[in-house]
Amino acid sequence: MAELGLNAYRFSISWSRVQPTGRGPAVQKGLDFYRRLVDELLSKGIKPAVTLYHWDLPQELEDAGGWPERDIVHRFADYARIVGEALGDRVEQWITLNEPWCSAFLGYGSGVHAPGRTDPVAALRAAHHLNVAHGLGVSALRSVMPARNSVAVSLNPSMVRPFSDSPEDLAAVRKIDDMANGVFHGPMLHGAYPETLFAATSSLTDWSFVLDGDMAIANQPLDALGLNYYSPTLVSAAAEDAAGPRADGHGESDHSPWPAADDVMFHQTPGDRTEMGWTVDPTGLHELIMRYTREAPGLPLYVTENGAAYDDKMDADGRVHDPERIAYLHGHLRAVRRAITEGADVRGYFLWSLMDNFEWAYGYGKRFGAVYVDYATLARTPKSSAYWYAQAAKTGALPPLVTTTS
C-alpha cells in the first residue's frame, strides 16, 4: 500500500480472534495482532478504517441462537467497547457492521452464507437485532473513544429498478426496496421501519420482537455512511407459475433471501458481466450515492466497497494484466466524481479489494484483488489495475484507459 501511495486501508476485526466465545474479557494476543497492524499502517502514513463485524460470528453465539436471538445485541455492544478501548486512541474511522443485509438474509434466509439457516422469520429477526446491535455498538464506541473519531455503518443498498412501468412491477420494486434498503436505513437513519415492510411480511410475523425503545437505540447519530455497490437489481411482478426469486445474484439456493416475496421475479440486467455474473453498470453507483444524499442530507458518504472479480492469470513474464478491472474502476470512479459535482458529499472510495482473498461461499475461486496472490506461496504481485488505481489515488484524476504495469 505504501509503495502504491494509498492513504487509507479498510479492514475488519475478527470477533472470534478477540473474544473466541463472544463473551468475557478479550484475548490480548488477538488484540495485539490488530495493535501491530494499526501501528504499521500509521508508520506508513496509511489511515486505518476499522470494521467491527464482517460476518464472522463466534460459534458459541450462533449455538445460542445467533442474530435471531435478543441477547446478541448486548454481546456485540460489549465487543465494540473492548475493541474501541484497545484501538480508539489511534484509529479514527470506525464502522459497526458490514452489509448487515447479507448477515441476516443470506445467513438465515437463503442459507448461502454461514450459518446456512433457511428460516424467513429468523432472517427478519436477525435484521432487527443487527439494527439494535448497531445502535448499541455506536454508543459503546463513543463511550470509550475520543470525540474526534468517526463512527459509521456500511450498508449494501440495492439500486432496484422496475422491468417495466406497470403498476405491478412498480409494486415489486417497492417490496424489494423495503427489504433490501428500508429494513436497515429506516431504523438507522430515520428511526422507523417502512410500514409497507410490515404489511408485506404480515403473513410471516407480527414483528413482536421489536421492543419499545428499539428504534431510538438503532437511530444513533452517525458521522458518516458507507455504501457498498456492485450491480443494480432489476425486478418485475412474477408470473403466476413462477417458482419465486432466484436470479438475484446472491448465490444458488432452494430458499429465497427475500421473505414473503415469491410474487417478485428477478431479472438479469443487460451489459457486460464480471466473473461473479454481476452486470457492470456504473450508473447504479451514481444513482445510489444521489439517493443517499437525499435520504441522509448532511451526512458524509464513503464508497466502502466497489470492485469486480475477473479470471486473472499471471503471464510468462510474471505480470498480471487486467484491463477489464481498469475499465470497471474508470467507469465507477467517474460515476463517483459525477455525483460529487452534483452535490454529493463523498469523502472517500475503498476498492474491494486490495488483494485476492477469501470470498465466503466462493472460497478462493473469485479474484477481486488489485494485487494477485499466489495461494501456494502467498507471493503478491500488483496487477495492472493496482498501478492504475495508485495513479488515480495519488493525482485525484482518472488516468487514461491503458494497461500500466509499473
Structure description:
- With 406 residues, the protein is an alpha/beta fold.
- Helix content is 38%, strand content 14%.
- The chain is built from 12 helices and 12 strands.
- It has helices spanning 15-18, 28-43, 59-63, 72-87, 100-106, 120-144, 167-190, 195-200, 214-218, 282-295, 323-341, 384-395, and strands at 8-12, 47-53, 93-98, 150-155, 160-162, 225-228, 233-237, 264-267, 301-305, 346-349, 371-373, 380-382.
- The longest helix is centred in the first third of the chain and has 25 residues, at 120-144.
- The radius of gyration is 21 Å and the shape is globular.
- It starts with 7 loop residues before the first strand and ends in an 11-residue tail after the last helix.
Keywords, separated by commas or semicolons:
alpha/beta, three-stranded mixed sheet, globular, hydrolase, Glyco_hydro_1_beta-glucosidase, glycosidase
Write the layout of secondary structure elements.
Elements: E1 8-12, H1 15-18, H2 28-43, E2 47-53, H3 59-63, H4 72-87, E3 93-98, H5 100-106, H6 120-144, E4 150-155, E5 160-162, H7 167-190, H8 195-200, H9 214-218, E6 225-228, E7 233-237, E8 264-267, H10 282-295, E9 301-305, H11 323-341, E10 346-349, E11 371-373, E12 380-382, H12 384-395
Helix pairs in contact: 4-6, 5-6, 6-7, 10-11, 11-12
